[in-house]
Amino acid sequence: MTTIPLNLGLTPVRRKPFDGRSLDEVVTELTAEIRELYTADQVPWVIGYSGGKDSTAVLQLVWMALTDLPAEQRTKTVHVISTDTLVENPVVAAWVSASLSTMQDAAQAQGVPVEPHRLTPEIKDTFWVNLLGRGYPAPRPKFRWCTERLKIKPSNAFIRSVVAAHGEAIMVLGIRKTESQARARAMEKHEKRRVRDRLSPNANLPNSLVYSPVEDWTNDDVWEFLMQKPNPWGYNNQDLLTMYQGASSDGECPLVVDSTTPSCGSSRFGCWTCTLVEEDKSMSAMIQNDEEKEWMTPLLELRNKLDAPFEEYKEGDDIPLGRKVGDPKPDKPARDFRRMNGKVMLFNDDPIHGPYLQSFREDWLKELLEAQTWIRAHAPAHVKNIELVTLEELHEIRRIWVFDKHEVEDSLPRIYQEATGDPFPGGPLDEQLVMGSDEMDVLKQVCDGDDLHYNMVRELLAVERKYRTMARRSGLFQALEQAVQKGYYEDREDAVEFATRKKKWRDDIAENLTFDDENELDAPA
């Protein structure tokens, strides 16, 4: 049961399910409210469905309410959207995919206006295109580039299309105040701005309102409802409970029978590649609790490699504010000391590191494809065709490596064949390259281990090839100059020294400027 702390100096008390009310009474009240809101206007509804307990409970309540309406009053579509990031926990992804298929068939058979949609991010926004292709570092709390691209953009694009077609939309979400203090504060803030009873404004999407029917429910309330009310589209809620149970480290996920019984609400499912948490506890528990899920071990190992610190701060190190001895250092050995645009930027006289280096991106791609190949060979039948990275993503990664990053060796087809044993299903790029892989090997030998100058010459050749066929070669010299500026250092230390001198020179000039100098510099030509 959920503990409610009271700031009265008293012992915390336990809350009874639904505050002591009966389940039937609560469900009857909520479904009546849903029917009233649904029939009040012609604004379409969009339900966010993740396949978890909260979104399942909300969809089940809406479905139950709709079935009690006469057919002539079911006049508007309820869109059910599920965003597949393409790196979801495979067990959960399979569950959601099968649920959406079952849901579509059941809606048609029952005459319920529910329309499921599986949304995916655009290829340019996927996790592997950004991490392996562009070299973005693994997501961190201060650089959380994944959530916006993988989850928010696909769902917002769909909601905007509904708003564009109908002028307005109502989002029905399974958010609850007891999930966290931050969630409770945010929901209470929006409650004060409600324009209609139970409908809160959406801060991010204009002309859309948010309805949260289970906002006051606890974990125990959700599970009691799911276990006692059958799923109306024919999916088994007991299997959902089993999935949560398997994702709990102790394997326990009981129904609440008294005040000492723990709740089944701590299991969190998400992307198997997520590095925003210290440990993927749900996947680790699944592997630990079920021998049939041991096939996910390569995924857990690869995720841990992406998140692994290369070094730790030691006594005598220049430790930044907020860090201490034993804390992991940033993954600097795996990343370029230059930013994505090739510039060297300093913070406390240390370069701000940029994208992952080519060698690390190639190694991780190979491990990803090897994991996919191994799982297809050893996993149960229902995941034999698992796709950890899609062919569309591989084609985009290849394009970025060759044409954006000027890695003209075109190593992806070779890596694919080594990892899978099959030839890469994509045509050769030799006709579009200034030199082939053999010539690049010769150039690398000539550079004799000097990667900075090898990369610079490689990029100069690629720039020349790009502009060769243009009728007007405007911008050629600027592109060549930028390529030279990226690689004219001897090494990392030389680049840092040059950036430090440049910064000091600018600081000295700014310090010695007089008032008249500033006015003169700001004056128009």
Main pleated sheet: 6 strands, mixed
Please report the number of helical segments: 18
- Between the first and last Cα atoms, what is the distance in angstroms? 73 Å
State the strand order across the main sheet: 5-4-3-6-8-7
Q: State the low-pLDDT regions, or none.
A: 1-13, 250-266, 517-525
The general outline is: elongated
**Could you state the order of secondary-structure elements as H and E?**
EEHEHEHEHHEHEEHHHHEEHHHHHHHH
The fraction of residues in strands falls at 5-15%
Structural class: alpha/beta
The strand count comes to: 10
Average pLDDT confidence is 81
Q: If you compute it from the alpha carbons, what radius of gyration comes out, rounded to the nearest whole angstrom?
A: 28 Å
Helix proportion: 40-55%
Give an account of the 3D structure.
The chain has 525 residues and is of the alpha/beta class. It is built from 18 helices and 10 strands. α2 (53-67) links the parallel β3 and β4. α2 (53-67) packs across α7 (219-228). Mean pLDDT is 81; it is low at 1-13, 250-266 and 517-525.
Mind sketching the topology for me?
Elements: E1 3-4, E2 13-14, H1 23-39, E3 45-48, H2 53-67, E4 78-83, H3 90-110, E5 114-119, H4 127-134, H5 145-166, E6 169-172, H6 181-191, E7 199-201, E8 208-211, H7 219-228, H8 237-246, H9 281-289, H10 297-307, E9 346-347, E10 350-351, H11 358-378, H12 391-404, H13 412-420, H14 437-447, H15 451-468, H16 476-487, H17 492-512, H18 515-522
Parallel strand pairs: 3-4, 3-6, 4-5, 6-8
Antiparallel strand pairs: 1-2, 7-8, 9-10
